[in-house]
């Protein structure tokens, strides 16, 4: 086998290997948010006063401890809750039950969709590191 054929064969092997790696990458589960978005969510959690009623991993305060919230509630429910807790208290059985337990309704903070997404990213990040 000539040197040119060896180089050509090695090149094809490397390309095939790279293709296989890239193909498998699409099957690897990836966290919804990255650490940067989680940091934005943490900042928002503090700035909007969430920490006055909630902790993440330090027990309940006025409201529930939010550690594990992304495992207890699906993302759609969390988005609805963060968008309009006052409406959910009127219609959602879980929200009604939480009001019965904590006796204080969560205020509607007027969060927009982007703020809700980074808060959920923050909750997911905390859930992933504080198992």
CATH secondary-structure class of the largest domain: Mainly Alpha
Number of DSSP helical runs: 7
Number of domains: 2
DSSP strand tally? 0
The fraction of residues in strands falls at under 5%
Please write the string of helix (H) and strand (E) elements: HHHHHHH
Mean pLDDT: 84
Radius of gyration: 23 Å
Q: What does the largest sheet look like?
A: none
CATH fold title of the largest domain: Cytochrome Bc1 Complex, Chain D, domain 2
Give the CA-based shape. elongated
Bin the helical content: 55-70%
Keywords:
single chain; mainly alpha; Cytochrome Bc1 Complex, Chain D, domain 2
List the helices and strands and how they pair.
Layout: H1 3-25, H2 35-47, H3 69-72, H4 75-83, H5 85-91, H6 93-102, H7 113-129
What does this structure look like?
The protein has 131 residues and is mostly helical. The chain folds into 2 domains: 1-30; 33-129, Cytochrome c-like domain (Cytochrome Bc1 Complex, Chain D, domain 2). It has helices at residues 3-25, 35-47, 69-72, 75-83, 85-91, 93-102, 113-129. The radius of gyration is 23 Å and the shape is elongated.
């Amino acid at each position: 086998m000539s040197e040119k054929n060896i180089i050509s064969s090695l090149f094809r092997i490397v390309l095939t290997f790279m293709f296989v790696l890239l193909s498998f990458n699409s099957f690897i589960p990836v966290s919804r948010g990255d650490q940067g978005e989680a940091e934005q969510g943490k900042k928002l959690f503090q700035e909007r006063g969430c920490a006055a009623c909630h902790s993440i991993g330090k027990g309940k305060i006025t409201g529930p401890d939010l550690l594990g919230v992304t495992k207890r509630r699906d993302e759609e429910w969390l988005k609805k809750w963060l968008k309009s807790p006052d409406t959910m208290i009127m219609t959602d059985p879980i929200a009604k039950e939480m009001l019965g337990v904590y006796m204080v309704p969560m205020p509607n903070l007027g969060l927009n969709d982007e703020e809700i997404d980074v808060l959920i990213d923050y909750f997911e990040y905390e859930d992933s590191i504080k198992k």
